Prior knowledge:
The chain is of the alpha/beta class.
Amino acid sequence: MSDEHQNSMGPVMDATPEIQELSERPEIKHAAIHELHKKHHENQVHHFTEEHREKHIAAWKVTKYAEEVAAYGINYFMKVFIGDGLFIHIRVHRQAHHAKYDFYSLHETFKHDVATCVFTEGIHNLNGVFIQEMAGEIAEQMRNVQKKIKSLAICQQDASNELTMDFGFLKFDENELDSSTRLSEYIRLSLNTSAETVVKFMKDGWGLPNPDLIISVTGGAKSFEMSTRLKKVFQRGLVAAAVNTNAWLITAGTNAGVVKEVGEALNNYRYKNEKHGLDVPCIGIGSWGYTAGNELLSKPASIWPTSMNGYSKGSHLLMKSMRSQSLDAIHMDVADEYCVRNYVVKEKLKKRCDLEPNHTHFLLFDDGGTSADTVLPLRAEIEKYCRHSCSQTVVEDETEQTLIPIVMVLVEGGPSSIRTICQALDSNTPVVVVKDSGRAADLVAELYACYPENENNTGNNIFPLRPQTAASRSDSREVEINKILTKAKNDNAWIDEIKSDLCRVLSERHELVTIFKFDGKKHNGNLEDAILEALFNAAKFSGDTNEQHRRTAELKLALAWHKFDYTQNYLLTDTTISKWKEPNLRRALVDALRRGHVDFVELLIEFGTSLENLTVADLKELYKTANTSNALPLKIRAKRDASMRDLFYLSYFKSLCNGAMVDRTLSLKDEQRLGKSASRDLFLWAIFLDRFELATYLCSKTWNSSVAPLFGALIYRRAARLTLDSEMKQQYMGNADQLDNYAASIIDRCFDNDEEFAVDMLKRPSTVFYNITPLQLALKSNCRSFIASKCVQRYIDNEWYGHINYKRQAIHFRVFLCSLFLPLLPIFCFFLPYVQKHKRLVRSARDPSTISQPTMIHSVIQPGLNRGRVYLGKVDKIAYFYRAPIVRFYYYTIFFVIFLGLFSFVLLADYFPWNNYQEQRSGIQGLHIPIPEIFLHICLWCLAIEEARQLISVDSKREFFSRIWNIIDVLGIVLYVIGFITRFFVNESLFTISKIFLCLDLILWYVRTLNLFAAYEKFGLKLFMIFNTMRDLLFFICFILIFLYGFSVASWSLINTANQVFWNYNSDGSLYNVSTANDGNDLWTWQTIRDVTNYGVWKVFGQVDPINGNDSYSDVAFVLAILFVAIANVLLLNVLVALFNLTIQNVQNQSHVLWRYQRFLLVAEYRDKPLLPPPFNIFYYLFVFLRYIIRKMKSLCCRCRRSATVSGDNVPIDRIDVSESIIQREEFKVTDAMQRESAIADDYWGYTLKHGKKDQMEIALHDIEEKLHDVRQQLQMIHTGSNNNNYQPLNNDRNSCASED
């Protein structure tokens, strides 16, 4: 076979990150390790233990790999290092269409008659290993084929009852079998074999998957002629139709005419999609006698044993002997023993034709003759039986047979093609006729135009034709038909043989014929559209008495071709929706979800198909498509039998399940409905498969609409960390930001509707999403837009001020004064205004007896005993004062000011070596270190304890170190510890180190105080600008250092040459000696680097010193100085200024979100800090420790008397009990608050989904316009209802709040 007919495997290559990531899939990696240990336990070779298993898993690394495109997918052969100098060779198969990865086999060899699967580095002949793997696959397939031949009693000839012996694989060249060879399967059958038997053999013997469509192609053979342009259009349309619908292609299998064009189309498609390993089943149904070179396909009876057991034993012995021999000698053995036949026809014979090499399967029927037409009736029966045998559906607990759509395509052709389409039309198979392709196709197209479309449907005509008119039209049609047949007869003598049957079927089956014209406007040159039209026509006029079946078939086709307009206008309308059964619509919804057609999903749900009616089996079916290349990356170790849903949950919600499996569907029956959690489960499924548009729509259908986008953002951000592809990382981050914006918009809509309700939502755990509060989820998923929303900022205000009424004037200054004067005894706090928070139970409007979840409301408490106000005691005021994070913030600010003053004083005037010589320190004789330094160490150790508490209490160390301030704190503590330890040694060098580190530490603590400015918007924005411009400065420093050292080294070497080299001349000017300073020794010192840097660094800032000297060295150095100053000052510094401007503009555009996010982190930090700042926080820690000990002792005493209970009300995101919230499937109760949130979110989603391509700013402007419109209407109503111009205020609530403030 020539190269153009092969799907060649690429060479053995070094492993790439993508291949390594593929091999890390649990269904591959853990399956291979499991198989390795299983085989070696059986053969007792290495006695692998669990310790070895963990070592193999940890050391797993692919070193070499190769790819092979095969039928129905692609094979990956990998050489994997597993530690201890051992390697294994594995084979991974990727299925076509579904793109599912499967661990296929582990290569096994024999050493001293003992099977082993591990190799050393010396065994690296991967090509030979691959061929052995191929041999094993072929042998297994042949065993299965022979078994089915025996069970189905498939005979070889009509005249003999002998089981067929001619079957196996075809190789269309004379080359040796290798890993690049593409094989086709064939079998010789008797013409009397029933269609039922043939179809069962194709499915069970060959293992062909069930198709969604059958495309039968017929047409011209040896006399076939068609232009190159028309051939390309035909090939492109045919392959597009086959690939999009998971179709079988059925042809005559001959290497001539239109069948050859079909083969070339498939061959081109395979090469273009070699990376994805897709292969379309193409079945050739032909005559054994008509096949040229059929003797090459026949084998002696002695090669194949009649006993199945004998074959298995013989093949095993053969494989054992092969493995013990050299790997280079297996090619011919495999080809001979495993039924791989070289099929190369060198001479063309008359009235016979060879097989087309790009078909995947051949059915060759032997009736003892050489005519190709004898197979046509059986081919029609096979196609008909394929429709009935491959598809069943369950509707209302009854199994119904649904026919697989079938269509025949006629291209050119002769009398055989006419007979074929006649038989097809008689079987109600639609036919697409390719007009202008020649001969039979053009004849059918011309005759088709002579028959009116509604002639045979007169019963439906409102105004039937009068007899005279019908008779006259019939006469004119007969004349025109005879004229067409007479004209065609001049070139085709066979017209008389077929004209009666052809005219009859065109008259009776006129609706089943579709004419496709290459340059016609009807189909726009798309053959696939013509095929779809033919299938629609067949569904309408199939004669099926069950109208539901016809509609279901049409809807299935519309989904396969994504014909939304047709579905919306004809299938799912207001008049037809009542005729649909719920199970059929449910299956259509599952199909639409699987294909990712958002418009179909929306249409089906709009017409009443509920997501809640989907079952656990439907969800499992959808997760079977999770192994596509578009799914989010997985990185988790799991058991081999873990479902894909479990793997996704463990990869992205590992903190939710504490390592336990989270597949709730394992304990559920497949027929159980998903219920109210359906929208959530499907939303997460769409996110995991990275179907963002579908996930956005499903997000709009979930309960807790403000939490669902945050959950999706969390998944996408974790996927961005797992993926290695920079483009995919950027795409995942973009999707996460979009979901973040959705969540922010929804919570702000709720805030505009009811402020107290929206703020309360932030603290209420989501019963739909595993009892996680929105704020916990937003912080964990880094959703800055959500945190910057108005609602969250109102919540932050409430948290920041606590019970202090922050709506009063100059409240910041008043709180600061209360904190500043007598900070540990705040007597002035009694005069601050406070707000008392309590919960109000709101009754449902629908059911007054039903009480919804409590809503937090505020009551203002005045400083004095005002009438009508609630009095608050002094103890309560002190408690409220200390609990407010703003008070702690001011206390820590005061502490930092004092601390930095003390630190600075110690380093400037009171830091001395350890006093071992009884000198005075702080006026005290014999004191080892001064008293101010003692206080400094106490403060620093208290800071270190506080930082350790924060590090221990955080959920994720990654999140802790992702914040720059925490890094500065840790680095400052590390520098202090080094300086603290070295200061106790009375050694000059160590004391120098100690003071240097403490000075560096002081710088960090000064920088650390900048975080305090984040509490105020004006200062915080400037702080962000400084940090972002520092990044640009780092890049600039790298560039300037290159120029600086290039210039400085060159100039300094030129200037100092006169001090290093001395030229000695005689009085007559002749040179008599050249000497060097110090004889050329010790010229290099570390001072040289300092001098070189000092020489160039000041020129960056424009400070240029004159160069003394008139020699050439000085002249060149002068020119270099001019060039460097020009580059450094004019070019690089201006570039830096431009970068600063750009960065500042970007920060300015995002300043609103950035500052609010940082403020949220600041409030969260000070809310959790101790009540008192260092060094007084040590008393707080002692109190907490004693309280913990007391509670622990009480719990130990009471443990034997009480049962442990678990509450899931306010559980952190990393400590959710899987047994309560995930593994058990509980139908959550839809509360009044959830319905209210959903109602508010529906308005937003309705506009967002409708205008999904519009910018968020346009949505905000639209909201403002709607509010202005409402205000105008209210003003107009007030104007019409009043006779004067004195209008009442529109917002009484705001005025009342202002009066209280």
